[in-house]
Design a protein that fits this description.
globular; TIM Barrel; binds zinc ion; 11 strands
Length: 362
């Protein structure tokens, strides 16, 4: 074969698309990563610098809506967004304390519209709905309570997703188990550990109420936080994603749970629903909840641990072969590049309309 043709063949072979198995993992900094679930309520230059250096953008989520701190969170979140629109788009929430007042719905809708006018991309609803707040008769209010229907209908009309952290990991309803990845949380936060508290709604009842929102409001986009509180049940996640085309999930604070499932099952979920799963971490920086302001050393420490977390997650989702994730031996998922692009940013850009939020001039 003439030399030129041999060279042409070699070139074509080198450029041929690689199969997923041969495809190299993307370089961490080169892939844009959107953390759709963070709570950062202070203007910390070290955080901005970290996000820029490692190519992370966040969605900053205001929550909860029942403890009287919403006005402070709202102020800080929008100040950050105005200063760094690319780094901190805002998901707002609404005040639940006026739920018994006759003007609860119009007031809430006016509050949300004002937040959308300032650029809010979504609305959070938290686990307090289901396992904390009660009606006048002392009964727990479930998330599909008719009280919320006009609000959900309004979000659907406005095209704003409901970011739903409803229920808790199933472990909240089980005896405390030192081998559970949620042991630390429930041993330190007994108020959210519901085992042996029969007055509380069951996990299944709250999940059914969440599903009922999607049934009642098929044009409302619902993002299930924390794997939709079905971290123990990959088949249950798949079943909801198949049943509700308006449902997506994010992995915040549940990558650890994924690493406990067989990696081929987790991988199969991502490959079956590549457009419906988003990245998130659920990191919290909440100086307004502390008695004394954090020190610069603590701020830098938070940035360092956050970077380790982001990179460790990437090793799990994008890497190849055996790995240890926070003490758990597992196999990296080695997701194909096209799936990683959707998981890490394209799905969030579409579902939260982020390009418009980023481009907004203060
Ligand atoms: Zn959170």
């Amino acid at each position: 074969m003439p030399l030129l043709r041999r060279l042409a063949f070699a070139l074509v072979a080198a450029l041929a698309p690689l199969s997923a198995a041969e495809e190299p993992a993307p370089v961490y900094e080169q892939l844009l990563k959107i953390d759709v679930h963070s709570h950062i309520f202070e203007d910390v230059p070290a955080f901005h610098a970290l996000f820029r250096r490692i190519n992370v953008r966040t969605i900053n989520v205001c929550v909860p809506g029942g403890d009287g701190r919403l006005a402070t969170m709202d102020r800080v979140a929008f100040e950050l967004y105005r200063k760094e629109p690319e780094l901190y788009p805002v998901t707002t929430t609404f005040d639940l304390r006026g739920r018994d007042e006759p003007d609860f719905v119009p007031k809430t809708i006016a509050w949300l519209d004002a937040a959308f006018a300032r650029g809010a991309v979504a609305v959070k609803i938290w686990k307090e709905v289901g396992i904390e707040i009660k009606d006048r008769d002392g009964k727990f209010i479930l998330p599909d309570d008719p009280l919320f229907d006009p609000i959900y209908a309004h979000l659907a009309r406005r095209g704003k997703p409901l970011h739903a952290h409803l229920a808790e990991p199933i472990d909240a309803w089980l005896p405390l188990d030192p081998t559970s990845s949620h042991y630390g949380y429930y041993s330190q936060n007994p108020q959210w550990h519901l085992h042996g508290k029969p007055d509380y709604p069951s996990h299944a009842a709250i999940i059914a109420a969440r599903d009922n929102i999607m049934r009642k409001h098929p044009t409302l986009t619902v993002v299930g936080a924390h794997l939709g509180s079905l971290e123990h049940d990959l088949a249950g996640i798949a079943e909801r994603l198949a049943r509700f085309s308006n449902f997506s999930i994010e992995v915040a604070a549940r990558t650890r749970n994924l690493t406990r499932h067989p990696s081929e099952n987790v991988r199969a979920l991502f490959l079956r629903f590549p457009d419906r799963i988003m990245y998130g971490v659920d990191s919290s920086w909440l100086p307004h909840r502390r008695d004394t302001p954090p020190s610069d050393q603590q701020r830098r420490g938070h940035a360092t641990s956050l970077e380790l977390r982001y990179r460790g997650d990437f090793d799990y989702y994008a890497g190849r072969g055996p790995m240890t994730y926070y003490g758990q031996k597992t196999e990296s998922l080695g997701l194909p590049r096209a799936v990683l692009e959707k998981f890490y940013h394209a799905n969030a850009e579409r579902i939260f309309a982020l390009k418009a939020a980023w481009a907004r001039q203060p």
